[in-house]
């Protein structure tokens, strides 16, 4: 079953990317080709095979909870599209009402 | 001057240490070469001539003052544009980060600076390192110095082409599915993907975190060993960094025979789909390895044939999560902030405008693979394939010391040839992906030309056995150079700077 342009638009909304109608229509068949090839993995990924969660098996990494230098507010804000009073300025977040 | 830029890094270091050459002279030679060729090849997205010359003069002053410096002090280097640099923009080849100057240096960059290397600029790449051709860069494609109508590989085509065209003796790249090795193969250079965790990812803009691995791009095996010795080793800032001693890679690169080394040829990576010229160069190289004392075996790794489809689930899934940080709020592009749009609408518009087509395609696949109801079927299954690939490697390394294959099924393809067919593009990384999935060490070494274009041989070693790559690569390199009478890059044709106008 193939992906439709509407599916792509819905995925775009989930991924927070505004896609044009033309982009959705063009992407749908391309994604289908990729997904069809990807379906092959289920041929060998049988229930008895455990999932690998990491490239190299490692134990959890802990460190001592000590205070150390961090970035200054100026450094953190240096790449911001907009800032005000030492903070990131973002567009309206709460609803209009 | 022209001879200077062709010298090996070991020779450059020796001349600087002996006072026969200054870093400033060498850096000026590289900058002149970049100025002459960059308009044609589009290798560097940013060149910091002033900063590089200042760094070179600082090294010269330290050396003049009698300070004992490392073997790479004063050597110019190019850095892929996905490493954070405090004195140059880091764009990741994307419009999203156009002009962004990071507030900190990546660990790799910090170590380069501490070792006295001279960072001349940032090299072009596929957008956010997704691609096999350096065609998805927002700043235009890089061209292969062997044939400017062809791709230099990807995503690190800029770093590989910088080294192949003698703009800089060294470069660093990042390898998620083959992005150091595949460009190395198609440009006739050495590309190494160290063991996952062997070189810190801190400050490397994340693409697919469980696969990304920084590594060297160089003109010789020994140069690569010298560079990995500088950038490798444990880093507190990367939770996946391996806290194990780094083996003597330079000594391994200088080994003179392969007596007692057992080499497995991967049966799955030959035959249909592989260009005859690629297979011929590969077979000739195998005979040279045998003549150098290695025992050669055929080894089957059946799960490797599932690596590519599984990779194209894991990589977009991790990428869609990592690229979620580009929301137009704290850094990067912000679009539609005119007072009429909510924060969410601004995010949607910023991401629409900031990301290119391939980035969108993979974010959408990743979002689909991770969405409710599909997670187990797709991402979970792909992680199981990873287990099977790791098991194939483990089994193989019970009988052989390293595995080898062609690095790529074909030589460099033409620019534009595969852009409209994502699956044919993805096939370029067919042989390189298993090592990323398993996390083991892997490298590509030049093994000759097919129709005038470079062919690469891939060596794969167990995790934390990176020195085996260098031993096999070094012996192969010397055997080939003795057969050819010179290094492969001596055959690089003169680059026609009039050929490309776009």
Automatic annotation (TrEMBL), chain A:
The EC designation for this entry is 6.3.5.-
Map out region (Disordered) in residue numbers: 74-97
Annotated signal sequence is: none
Q: Which Pfam family would be a valid example here?
A: GatC
InterPro entries according to UniProt: GatC
Keyword set for this entry?
ATP-binding, Ligase, Nucleotide-binding, Protein biosynthesis
Q: Which top-rank group of organisms is this from?
A: Bacteria
Query: According to its UniProt record, which reaction does this protein catalyse?
Result: L-glutamyl-tRNA(Gln) + L-glutamine + ATP + H2O = L-glutaminyl-tRNA(Gln) + L-glutamate + ADP + phosphate + H(+); L-aspartyl-tRNA(Asn) + L-glutamine + ATP + H2O = L-asparaginyl-tRNA(Asn) + L-glutamate + ADP + phosphate + 2 H(+)
Function in brief: Allows the formation of correctly charged Asn-tRNA(Asn) or Gln-tRNA(Gln) through the transamidation of misacylated Asp-tRNA(Asn) or Glu-tRNA(Gln) in organisms which lack either or both of asparaginyl-tRNA or glutaminyl-tRNA synthetases. The reaction takes place in the presence of glutamine and ATP through an activated phospho-Asp-tRNA(Asn) or phospho-Glu-tRNA(Gln).
Subunit and partners: Heterotrimer of A, B and C subunits.
Protein name in the entry: Aspartyl/glutamyl-tRNA(Asn/Gln) amidotransferase subunit C
Supply the source organism for this entry.
Tessaracoccus palaemonis
Gene name, per UniProt, is gatC
TrEMBL record, chain B:
The protein's annotated catalytic reaction(s) are:
L-glutamyl-tRNA(Gln) + L-glutamine + ATP + H2O = L-glutaminyl-tRNA(Gln) + L-glutamate + ADP + phosphate + H(+)
Pfam families linked to this entry? Amidase
What keywords sit in the KW lines?
ATP-binding, Ligase, Nucleotide-binding, Protein biosynthesis
What EC number(s) does its UniProt record assign?
6.3.5.7
Catalytic residues at 80 (charge relay system), 155 (charge relay system), 179 (acyl-ester intermediate)
Does the record's keyword annotation contain ATP-binding?
yes
The answer to whether the entry has keyword Transport is no
> Where in this chain does the record put each Amidase domain?
25-469
Q: Which InterPro entries match?
A: Amidase, Amidase_CS, Amidase_dom, GatA
Subunit structure, per the record?
Answer: Heterotrimer of A, B and C subunits.
Q: What does this protein do?
A: Allows the formation of correctly charged Gln-tRNA(Gln) through the transamidation of misacylated Glu-tRNA(Gln) in organisms which lack glutaminyl-tRNA synthetase. The reaction takes place in the presence of glutamine and ATP through an activated gamma-phospho-Glu-tRNA(Gln).
The protein's name: Glutamyl-tRNA(Gln) amidotransferase subunit A
What organism is this sequence from? Tessaracoccus palaemonis
Name the gene. gatA
């Amino acid at each position: 079953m193939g992906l439709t342009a509407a599916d792509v638009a819905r995925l775009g909304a989930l991924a927070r990317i505004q896609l044009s109608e033309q982009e959705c229509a063009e992407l749908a068949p391309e994604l289908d080709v990729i997904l069809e090839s990807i379906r092959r993995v289920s041929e060998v990924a049988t229930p008895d095979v455990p999932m690998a969660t990491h490239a190299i098996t490692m134990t959890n990494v802990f460190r001592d909870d000590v205070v150390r230098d961090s970035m200054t507010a100026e450094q953190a804000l240096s790449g911001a599209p907009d800032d005000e009073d030492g903070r990131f300025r973002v567009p309206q977040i709460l609803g209009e009402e | 001057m022209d001879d200077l830029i062709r010298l090996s890094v070991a020779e450059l270091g020796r001349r600087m240490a002996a006072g026969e050459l200054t870093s400033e002279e060498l850096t000026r030679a590289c900058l002149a070469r970049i100025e002459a060729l960059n308009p044609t090849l589009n290798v560097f997205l940013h060149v910091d001539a002033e900063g590089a010359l200042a760094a070179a003069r600082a090294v010269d002053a330290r050396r003049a003052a009698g300070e004992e410096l490392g073997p790479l002090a004063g050597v110019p280097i190019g850095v892929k544009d996905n490493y954070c640099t405090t004195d140059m923009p880091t764009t990741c080849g994307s419009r999203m980060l156009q002009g962004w100057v990071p507030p900190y240096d990546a660990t790799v960059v910090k170590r380069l600076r501490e070792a006295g290397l001279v960072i001349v600029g940032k090299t072009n790449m596929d957008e956010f390192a997704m691609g096999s051709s350096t065609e998805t860069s927002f700043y235009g494609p890089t061209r292969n110095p062997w044939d400017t109508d062809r791709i230099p590989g990807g995503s690190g085509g800029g770093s590989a082409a910088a080294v192949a065209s003698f703009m800089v003796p060294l470069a660093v790249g990042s390898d998620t599915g083959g992005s150091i090795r595949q460009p190395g193969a198609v440009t006739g250079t050495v590309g190494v993907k160290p063991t996952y965790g062997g070189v810190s990812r801190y400050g490397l803009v994340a693409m697919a975190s469980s696969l990304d691995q920084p590594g060297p791009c160089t003109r010789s095996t020994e140069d690569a060993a010298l560079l990995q010795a500088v950038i490798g080793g444990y880093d507190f800032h990367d939770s996946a960094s391996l806290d194990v001693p780094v083996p003597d890679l330079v000594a391994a690169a200088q080994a003179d025979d392969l007596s007692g080394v057992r080499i497995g040829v991967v049966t799955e990576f030959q035959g249909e789909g592989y260009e005859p010229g690629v297979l011929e160069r590969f077979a000739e190289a195998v005979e040279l390895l045998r003549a150098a004392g290695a025992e050669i075996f055929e080894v089957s790794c059946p799960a490797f044939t599932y690596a590519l489809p599984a990779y194209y689930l894991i990589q977009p899934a991790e990428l869609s999560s990592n690229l979620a940080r580009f929301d137009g709020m704290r850094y990067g592009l912000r679009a539609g902030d005119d007072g009429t749009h909510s924060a969410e609408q601004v995010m949607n518009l910023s991401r629409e405008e900031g990301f290119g087509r391939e980035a969108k395609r993979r974010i959408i696949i990743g979002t689909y693979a991770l969405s409710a109801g599909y997670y187990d079927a797709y991402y979970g299954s792909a992680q199981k394939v990873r287990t099977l690939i790791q098991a194939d490697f483990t089994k193989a390394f019970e009988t052989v010391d390293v595995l080898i294959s062609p690095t790529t099924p074909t030589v460099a393809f033409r620019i534009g040839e595969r852009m409209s067919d994502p699956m044919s593009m993805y096939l370029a990384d067919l042989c390189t992906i298993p090592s990323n999935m398993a996390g083991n060490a892997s490298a590509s070494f030049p093994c000759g030309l097919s129709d005038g274009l470079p062919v690469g041989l891939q060596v794969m070693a167990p995790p934390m056995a990176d020195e085996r790559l260098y031993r096999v690569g070094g012996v192969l390199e010397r055997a080939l150079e003795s057969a050819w009478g010179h290094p492969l890059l001596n055959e690089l044709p003169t680059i026609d700077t009039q050929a490309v106008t776009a």
